[in-house]
Amino acid sequence: MTDPRPQWFHFGPLVFSIDAAEALIATTPRDTRPLDVMTWATAYGLTRLDDPHQQAVNLIGPTSTGLNRAYAMTTNLTKPLIVAQLDVTGHPPSPLLIDGIHRLYRAWREHVPRLPAYLLTAEETRQIQDNVLLGPGATTPPPPS
User: Fold this and answer.
1) What are 16's strand-pairing partners?
2) What is the DSSP pairing of strand 14-17 with strand 129-131?
3) Buried b (16+ CB within 10 A) or exposed e, 81-112
4) Could you tell me which residue, 35 or 53, shows the higher pLDDT?
5) Alpha carbon distances (Å) from 70 to 42, 53, 75, 102, 103
6) For residue 120, how many C-alpha atoms fall within 13 Å in the half-sphere facing its CB?
7) Predicted pLDDT of residue 29
8) Tens of pLDDT, residues 63-121
9) pLDDT tens digits for 134-145?
């Protein structure tokens, strides 16, 4: 049985619908890509979460109390993660893991080198993203009236 509650990923003022991403992937099938667990776990601060003397603050990724470790260790590592691509003005799109942080944590703890991941395009990412300050699909403020 699947969880009937909507799934969302929050990143600053941006909110991504995981349900919409999964529906988009179902209607536009694609191959998965290998995601390097150590690289992503390090980038998301997962490799430092259990350090009782941690001094650094993560800019992305969960806090030491924000990740349910017991749940993480029960997750299905065969289910692909979802990586969005954010438009950054003047730069190539930047990848952002929007679904699978618990699976990534488990894989890191169990020394799994790679996980399957779906990569959304920047356009697909805009389709599943809302800006809590600006509204659905908005990435920049509206022009002054």
Assistant:
1) 9, 129
2) antiparallel
3) bbbbbbeeeeeeeebbbbbbbbbbbbbbbeee
4) 35
5) 20, 21, 9, 10, 11
6) 32
7) 93
8) 766 789 999 999 999 999 999 999 888 899 999 999 999 999 999 999 999 999 999 99
9) 555 555 444 444
Long-range contacts at 66-69 (CB < 8 A, ≥ 24 apart): 67/101, 67/102, 67/105, 68/102, 69/105
Higher per-residue confidence, 15 vs 1: 15
Q: How many residues does the chain have?
A: 145
Q: Is the pLDDT of residue 57 over 70?
A: no
Question: How many of the other CB atoms lie within 10 Å of CB of 18?
Answer: 16
| CATH class of the domain defined by 31-135 | alpha beta
pTM here is: 0.83
**Listing from the earlier edge strand, what are the strands of the sheet with 91-99?**
33-36, 114-119, 81-88, 91-99
Q: Are strands 81-88 and 33-36 parallel, antiparallel or unpaired?
A: unpaired
Alpha helices in the chain (DSSP H): 18-27, 37-43, 69-72, 101-109, 122-128
Q: Kindly report the CA angle at 127 between 90 and 9, in degrees rounded to 5?
A: 90
Query: What are the DSSP E strand ranges found in 30-106?
Result: 33-36, 81-88, 91-99
